[in-house]
Specification:
Elements: E1 3-7, H1 11-23, E2 27-31, H2 34-43, E3 48-52, H3 60-70, E4 75-80, H4 85-93, E5 98-101, H5 106-118
Parallel strand pairs: 1-2, 1-3, 3-4, 4-5
Helix pairs in contact: 2-3
């Protein structure tokens, strides 16, 4: 199955993503700090990053840009509690494959992860 990274400044969100996707057979690596997640991508193979748009030090879109430099083939799904057309457009222009609206819906997350990985 896939190597998935989840980054959210709220630990409960990363735990939830981890539980949902681990049950689907994926290896999920969870982070609450942008620097740690970026460093992980530079050192390890990651098939899919699930990134919250609103983080502590930088935006998820900025993190995605840095991760894509290190791993251009990595897929990404952005999470947002504040969906706007601009945010979605910016995320997709930087290489995000999908985005999910928070609170996280198990079925939506599973479907979008399967779709992106099948991609």
């Amino acid at each position: 199955m896939a190597e998935i990274l989840a980054l959210d400044d709220v630990q409960d969100a990363t735990v939830l993503i981890g539980k949902i996707l681990t049950k689907k057979g994926h290896n999920v690596h969870t982070f609450t700090e942008e620097d740690d997640a970026i460093a992980y991508v530079k050192e390890n193979k990651v098939d899919l990053a699930i990134l919250d748009i609103k983080l502590k030090k930088m935006s998820g879109v900025e993190v995605l840009a840095l991760m894509k430099e290190a791993a251009p083939d990595m897929h990404a799904i952005m999470l947002t509690g504040y969906p706007t057309v601009e945010t979605a457009r910016e995320a997709i222009s930087l290489g995000a494959d999908e985005y999910c609206v928070k609170p996280i819906d198990r079925d939506e997350l599973e479907d979008k992860v399967a779709k992106v990985l099948a991609g």
